[in-house]
Amino acid sequence: MSEPRYEDPVASPEELPAAPAAPAAPPKTLLDQLQKLLATVNADLADLESAGARSAEPTGPAGSATGPGGW
Question: Which residues of the chain have pLDDT under 70?
Answer without folding.
Answer: 1-4, 6-23, 54-71
